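Input record, target 12 of the design panel.
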């Protein structure tokens, strides 16, 4: 069966590629217009530069707060008192997934990738969003103390936007975003942070046992040296006692002679030489 097209049908078929191209151009323009509404700031989230407890663990880390990130922007649909600062924590393909979802699902971006399921498997989007506060809470200027934001502070939480822990030893990136509370869409954003690699715990098979052997040898050496020192101290004490006893130059023994009024003194010195002295006792004289 052979189909024949008249001139009008042929002209309409020829117009289809042009119409498709026009529709694609319009869609791209709409997407670009939506994208152009998202302002960008030059700040990059950074891990806390100060040495602090829990600064970097296997499932969490500590960031510097977004101080003065969004306080001086103009042409925003909200103010420093109404705009909301959120953070995006992404792992692997989660960076690309968020950049896509903030345009395709602009008004649903806060629930596009809920935390409990964000890192369950490859089919999930590998990012989640959690709230920090308002721009007024992060003012410009020097503030006293250390201001920080801990990613993973809520532990194993189950709500959509909770600040849950991350997969052990994963590599993540962070971006701060500004949300319009009316449209629930992104109106401004910071740059992505550099990759932050969490600590990977070591298995028992990877522990170097030679370190423990060296430590045991050091303990034995320490015990031997301590015992030797104790023996030396004991010998020193004994020598001091002998020296003190030998400092007595001699001793005297007094014995009575046959005569009740006589006496004999026998003395000896440390050389074993004896000498004797005789005499008579003095009798008191009555007057």
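The sequence produced for target 12 reads:
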């Amino acid at each position: 069966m052979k189909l024949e097209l008249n001139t009008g049908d042929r002209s309409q078929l020829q117009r289809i590629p042009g119409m498709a191209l026009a529709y694609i151009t319009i869609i791209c323009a709409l997407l670009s217009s939506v994208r152009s509404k998202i302002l960008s700031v030059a700040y990059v989230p950074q891990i806390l530069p100060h040495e602090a407890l829990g600064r970097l663990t296997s499932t969490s880390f500590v960031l510097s707060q977004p101080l003065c990130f969004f306080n001086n922007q103009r042409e925003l649909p909200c103010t420093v008192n109404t705009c909301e600062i959120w953070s995006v924590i992404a792992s692997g393909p989660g960076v690309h997934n968020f950049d896509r979802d903030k345009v395709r699902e602009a008004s649903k971006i806060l629930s596009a990738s809920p935390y409990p399921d964000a890192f369950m498997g490859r089919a999930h989007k590998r990012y989640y969003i959690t709230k920090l506060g308002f721009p007024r809470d992060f003012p410009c200027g020097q503030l006293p103390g250390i201001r920080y934001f801990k990613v993973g502070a809520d532990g194993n939480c189950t709500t959509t936007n909770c600040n849950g822990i991350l997969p052990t030893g994963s590599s993540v990136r962070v971006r701060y975003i500004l949300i319009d509370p009316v449209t629930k869409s992104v109106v401004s954003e910071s740059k992505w942070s550099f990759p932050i690699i969490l600590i990977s715990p070591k298995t028992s098979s990877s522990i170097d046992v030679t370190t423990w052997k060296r430590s045991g040898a050091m303990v034995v050496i320490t015990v031997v040296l301590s015992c030797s020192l104790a023996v030396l101290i004991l010998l020193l004490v004994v020598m001091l006692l002998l020296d003190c006893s030998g400092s007595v130059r001699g001793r005297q023994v007094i014995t009575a002679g046959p005569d009740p009024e006589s006496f004999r003194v026998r003395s000896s010195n440390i050389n074993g030489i004896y000498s004797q002295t005789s005499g008579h006792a003095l009798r008191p004289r009555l007057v």
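The longest helix spans residues 210-246.
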